[in-house]
Write the structure tokens for this entry.
Amino acid sequence: MSQYEFYEIIKKPPVAWVYLNRPDKKNAMNPPAWKESIPIFEDIDKDPDIRVAVIAGRGPCFSAGIDLMGMAGEMPELMDSDQKGGVKWSLLKKISAMQDAISCIEWCRKPVIAAIHGHCIGAGLDMATTCDIRICSADAVFCLKEAAVGFVADVGVLQRIPRIVGQGFARELAYTAKTIDAQKAAQMLLVNEIYPDAAAVMDGAEKLAVQIAENPPLAVQASKDVLNYGAEKSVEDGLKYVASVSANIIPSKDLMEAIAAFSEKRKPVFTGQ
């Protein structure tokens, strides 16, 4: 188990559990939350024993969003009423760094599951939408909050949520900043499945992670790479890219193991080679 200020990391190969661990503040994302995520997911990406990651929140919820007061010292530009070019240039660099702190989940080659309970608000929803799969408990609520407090959501959710729920629902959530419940989130396809409570959603996440981990890791990771690449590309571009990826990972020892296991009528053991 690795210790960070905001996150708690527990590795139980083949699954890494990434907990937002500031329960007394409803996992509101303070400066360490934005600085620690990149090294965490770089480590998960490089760890050969980890095939899937699960992100969840300790305490009463997944995340209540960004800690505005906590971030004020990091971004004094936000309160500068006389912003000139140099101030804006400095702010642009900081926004870019925060975008990377969310995008690193997408950059990680291992699939990432968001196991959500309670509030998933603002920056919490930003983080959830960069995960590959989202599941939630029946008490989960979601809100694209930024417009209600005078911000445009600028760290990725406006780019990613339309791919998940479509333009109509995405714009409704962005413009109204309204809160939706788990049933509505499932109707929008924001979440794949609803579980009765927080404990059940964690059990569901573990079962799903293990099911993914049982497949050849090269094929799973290549599938994530191709899906990410093709999200904003034409079908033709996507086909050309996947042909290249497929040619690069075949043949593999895992493919030979799958064939051998089938012929020998046994369960395959994949190594990622």
Notes: Strands lie at 2-3, 7-12, 15-20, 52-57, 112-116, 119-121, 133-137, 141-143, 179-181, 193-195.
